[in-house]
Amino acid sequence: MKARYVSILSGDAMNGANDGRPGQPSASSEDEATLADGESDAAGLEARPKSKPIYVLEGNTLRTRLTRELGIHYPFVGAGMAFVSLPPLVVAVSEAGGLGMLGTAPEPPGVLEARLKAIQAGTQRPYGVDFIVDKEPHGFTTRDHVDTCIAAKVPVVVFHWALPPREWIQALQAAGTRVWVQAGTVELARQSLDAGVEGLIAQGRQAGGRNLGCTPTLVLLKEFRKLTDAVPVLAAGGIADGFSAARALHHGADGVWVGTRLVASVEAYAHPLYKERLVDGDAGDTAMTTLFGPEWPGKRMRVIRNRVVREWAGRESSVPATAESGAIGTTRLFPGVLDVQYVMPRFSSFLPTPDTQGDLEEMSLPAGGASMARIDTVQPAGQIVVEMMERARRLLESPEGLDEADEDDRG
């Protein structure tokens, strides 16, 4: 069992702001106490007002196509995780020199608009929005959502699961927004390039959450890299520390896409016990399953192997209908904007947030086991960005061991 603790590291361990300006003050002990509760503000609309910045080392030489194109300090992108990646997490990642990514759930465009205003109030640095696209009529993403991003001049928009209509891509690009696609297969990556996208995210089978990938992350990364050298390619899945980030960059990634590690951050809008499970978990503690719906049924997810996952392993097709399965808890949707109370049916695909009440052993807990093996603490997101990237930079200066084929692909 891994040791579990919460680490709040002050900025005085660094020596310069992430815009290169020296001599900025570190966070106070009062600020540290505020953050140590492990939860972001319930509204989900505003980043912490006047929060102390996270500092990065000056003279950083970790530059890639991604950092040059976006003008960011580190080739680090926070995964746009629905329910979890709300404005406080987006702002924290971007302010630390990475690219924060808003995760969208099935929500009205007005909720998206409110989130974007909160992000823009919290940071002047680049950020992005991550959308789920599905051909089935579930209303995840519509042209109204795209138009909301166009009006807000969002720097980067990512589409996941399926390729969006070409007119959406073209409209976003005409407004100056970069369009990326997260793909788990070479075929979807090829289709995305044909549609003119400006970035690819190689989602390997180690990645937590909604995952179509069946190929280990680094293998898929290399296959994407063979398709193109004209656009940034990011690696997603199993990246949760400096070594895993350095290895992805060493094998051709222009940046890393980090999800599970950021769920175990102070700013992530995830239930505290969910975060604890990530800290305590290890490789092999997750499973791919189609168990969870009914909000979006029959879709593959990599989740923590809790009681309900173990109980129904191999019997997903026999899951009873929603009306027969009862409720497992309650939660609040669109916190801080619409505040809709929601009764969670058994096998709900909605993950637990600080607003959720119920038995987490019956809930969907998206995670990558290869990442959990590398997590031993809940930290501020900015500190995660800095520590991971600075460690990666040092390893890449002397890359012995990064070529070894020891990638843990157990998920």
In whole angstroms, how far apart are the ends?
A: 18 Å
Category by helix and strand content = alpha/beta
Per DSSP, what share of the residues sits in E-state strands of 2 or more residues? 15-25%
Q: What global shape is seen?
A: globular
Radius of gyration: 20 Å
- The overall pLDDT, averaged over residues, is 85
Poorly predicted runs are: 3-51
Number of helices: 15
Q: Strand count, sense and closure of the main sheet? A: 8 strands, parallel
Question: Number of DSSP strands?
Answer: 16
| Sheet with most strands: strand arrangement | 2-10-9-7-6-5-4-3
What is the helical fraction, as a range of percent? 25-40%
What report would you give on this structure?
This protein is an alpha/beta fold and 411 residues long. Helix content is 31%, strand content 16%. The chain is built from 15 helices and 16 strands. It has helices at 29-35, 65-70, 87-95, 109-122, 143-152, 166-174, 186-194, 217-227, 242-250, 260-263, 272-280, 307-312, 322-325, 369-372, 381-397; strands spanning 5-6, 76-78, 100-103, 127-132, 156-160, 178-183, 199-203, 209-210, 233-236, 255-258, 286-289, 301-304, 327-333, 340-345, 357-358, 377-378. The strands form 4 sheets. An 8-stranded parallel β-sheet has the order 2-10-9-7-6-5-4-3. The protein has a 3-stranded antiparallel β-sheet with strand order 8-12-11, with no helix packed on it. Strand 5, helix 6 (166-174) and strand 6 (178-183) form a beta-alpha-beta unit. Helix 3 runs parallel beside helix 4 (109-122), helix 4 packs parallel to helix 5 and helix 9 packs across helix 15. Mean pLDDT is 85; it is low at 3-51.
